[in-house]
Specification:
There is one protein chain. With 140 residues, this protein is mainly β. It has one helix at 127-139; strands spanning 8-11, 37-41, 50-55, 60-66, 69-74, 79-84, 89-93, 98-102, 109-114, 123-124. The protein is built from 1 helix and 10 strands, in the order E-E-E-E-E-E-E-E-E-E-H. The strands form 2 sheets. A 5-stranded antiparallel β-sheet has the order 1-7-4-9-2, with no helix packed on it. It has a 5-stranded antiparallel β-sheet with strand order 6-5-8-3-10. It binds thymidine-5'-diphosphate (TYD). Residues 37, 39, 41, 50-51, 53, 118 line the site of thymidine-5'-diphosphate.
């Protein structure tokens, strides 16, 4: 099972131009999975928190497409917080991480590239169940 050490900041390409910049992301090039879904969080009210769940299979790349926010990852043993604030920097999240996302700047947009389509069965939404899940997984 993945640990926090499998999660990392990914420097994405930045094609600069005086008319603006472009950041491309391709399957299995900048990220170690095939993108099956893209979603984005926006209109996030000040002080709001998102996340508070883990995924069993899903891999994701989170990007602050606009503004900034903090992502705290926990693998059941170790915890790490990442501050995302640049559209050319992504955070790769391996499966099995509890994630808390907050401290959104006003007008921020969180772009998420995901390895699977939406599947409610892939979520672990209760913290106690997550801890128990990690314990059984780690014993394997
Ligand atoms: P959730 O993943 O819990 O959001 P967050 O982690 O940002 O707080 O999703 C919130 C709601 O949106 C939940 O009812 C499921 C729904 N949803 C979809 O229907 N499809 C999707 O691709 C996603 C990400 C969420």
């Amino acid at each position: 099972m993945s640990t926090i050490f499998d999660c990392s900041i990914v420097h994405l390409p930045k094609i600069e131009n005086r008319a603006g910049n472009i950041t491309p992301v391709e399957n299995n090039k900048e990220i170690p999975f095939d993108i099956k879904r893209i979603y984005y969080l926006y209109d996030i009210p000040g002080g709001e928190k998102r996340g508070a769940h883990a995924h069993k299979k899903l891999q994701q790349l989170l990007i602050a497409a606009s503004g900034s926010f903090d992502v705290t990852l926990f693998d059941g043993t170790n915890k790490k917080t990442f501050h995302l604030s640049q559209p050319y920097i992504g955070l790769y999240i391996a499966p099995g991480m509890w994630r808390d996302i907050g401290n959104f700047s006003s007008g921020s947009i969180s772009l998420v590239l995901a390895s699977h389509k939406y599947d409610p069965k892939d979520y672990i939404r209760e913290y106690e169940k997550f801890l128990a899940y990690r314990k059984t997984i780690n014993k394997r």
